[in-house]
Amino acid sequence: MKKFVETIKNIWSIEELKDKILTTLGLLLIYRIGSTVLLPGVDPDSLTQLQAQTSEGLLGVLNAFTGGAFSRASVLALGIMPYISASIIIQLMGMAVPAVQKMQKDGESGRRKLNQITRYLTILIAGVQAPSYLANLSAQGVVLTLDPGTFWFLAWVTLTTGTIFAMWLGERITDKGIGNGISLLIMVGIIATLPQAFFQEMLSQVNQGAGWVAFIIELFALFVITMFAIALTQAVRQIPVQYAKQAAAGRGAATPTARQYLPMKVNAAGVMPIIFAQAIMFIPITVLQYSGAEGDSISWIITVFGNIQGFGYNLTFGLLIIIFTYFYTAIQVNTNSIADDLKRNGGFVPGIKPGAPTAEFLDTVLSRITFPGSLLLALIAVLPAVAMVVGLNTQWAYFYGGTSLLITVGVILDTLQQVESYLLNRHYDGLMKTGKLRGRTQTSTFG
User: Fold this and answer.
1) Residues 6+ apart with CB under 8 A from 81
2) Most buried among 60, 92, 234, 386, by the most CB within 10 A?
């Protein structure tokens, strides 16, 4: 405890770090306040059916990502999700579109162009999603206090503007605050429901369930799962690398330096495979429900893909996560580029020839460690469904794995690493005894 208090004092004594933390907290507070502001023309007393619809299932996951704004018919009901969708599309285009590939390789100027394209694409996606959200409001019996035509226009503009505002807040946090702004907005939305879910589950177990013992066991299980998620997020395979040290003044042969290690992450894809898989799982039931198609096979598909606790849903979900883990890892980790960089800097893997053989070796290692990583990621993804089956409250069960837990763990570790860097640069003790957060890199949770 003494060391913790001393670390907090050190953080507060660094003026730049203190300003960044306060700026981040202030912008996050603005985002949370915005999520409680109703759309113009919506009667708040008529949201009961909408809130019941978003209490579970895939819409429950989406509502958790927006911090409850989706079920409140808030001006930020779409949240930052259109931006995430736009980012995913741009990343996929980087594999197939030469112009996007060129911008990805153009350094800072290319990054600015891609960011601008992502912003425009975000506005387009939000503009398309807003009418769907408004149609769902009508289907759920939400009472309007304005003329329907006026309401649709104002609400469409407001929802699109809300997404733009959320995107702006995320970028300001990244530039002026601490951590990745977009990831922090999603994390804050997720953990906003944690206190309510905690107390609901506690009261349910104490008053109607098995009592305090069962609730303490639940908390212990949550702790173990969280530690497992942290271990998966930080796990790396260290590949030995040596660099040849050039002889001074050209005299003598080059000599090898001390051995270093190239870290290959077991879960290089992060949380993206789960997001991809959830998007794919959401498509069939959405298309079929809005198409009005009927039949036994249609009803079966809607039943299977609409039940997130069902075996069929989770089996399909897990298989998609495994597939997308390999897919996204191939996008994120370019073994040919790593091998070229090693060769250019005089580095080599002991026993492996530089160049193409090194790339093949790295690709083989990456494939081998990605397989258990994908299985463990799929396991974490289906744990909330298991928690619901054994009787946990739906909102509380979401924190037992899945996207919510992995995003929270990843964002917290990335933010702590930035704080750690400030402390070490000012010659203070770090947050951890080892002086570093093992296995973390300065990357966004979603990129």
Assistant:
1) 62, 65, 66
2) 60
Domain extent at residue 274: 193-447
What CATH number is associated with residue 282?
Answer: 1.10.3370.10
DSSP 39: P
Question: Is 11 within the bounds of a domain?
Answer: no
Q: Is the pLDDT of residue 1 over 80?
A: no
Q: What's the mean pLDDT when you consider all of the chain?
A: 82
* Tokens at 122, concatenated: 């975000």
Within a domain: residue 234?
yes
Q: In 235-271, where does DSSP find H-type helix? A: none
Distance of CA 155 to the CA centre of its chain: 28
- 236 half-sphere exposure, CB direction, 13 A CA radius: 13
Same domain, 145 and 235: no
Q: pLDDT per residue over 297-322, tens digit each?
A: 777 777 777 777 888 888 888 898 99
Lookup result for tokens 């899945």: 402
Within 13 A of 129's CA, how many CA atoms are on the CB side? Answer: 23
Domain count across the chain: 2
Distance, in Å, from the CA atom of 261 to the CA atom of 254, rounded to the nearest integer, reads: 20
Enter the DSSP assignment of 144. B
